[in-house]
Amino acid sequence: MTEGNVVYEPPSVSTESLASLGEGHIAYVKQIRSEDVPGLFPQAPKIAPGLKLFALHSADGTPIMLTDSREAAIANAWSNELQAVSVH
Fold this sequence. Notes:
- There is one protein chain.
- By secondary structure, the chain is of the alpha+beta class.
- Helices cover 23% and strands 33% of the residues.
- It has helices at residues 15-20, 37-40, 70-79; strands at 2-3, 6-7, 26-33, 52-58, 63-67, 83-87.
- The strands form 2 sheets. The protein has a 4-stranded mixed beta sheet with strand order 5-4-3-6.
- It starts with a strand and ends with a strand.
- The mean pLDDT is 84.
């Protein structure tokens, strides 16, 4: 954006800085398929294909927990003093 002879350049934010925003305060809930579980939760037992599940992730994307209900994921976030947001 230019205004007269002044050029405005928005501040740049590194990927690492962006990933750390909300760390320790915000978590997000994302609906996943049971087929995605091994990649996100390698320690999880084998789960039947075709199930709709919900994963709770920290602000930086680290998986925290897996459940079969959105409400349980949000309750876990609250019990860990995290603000839960949904990702679609």
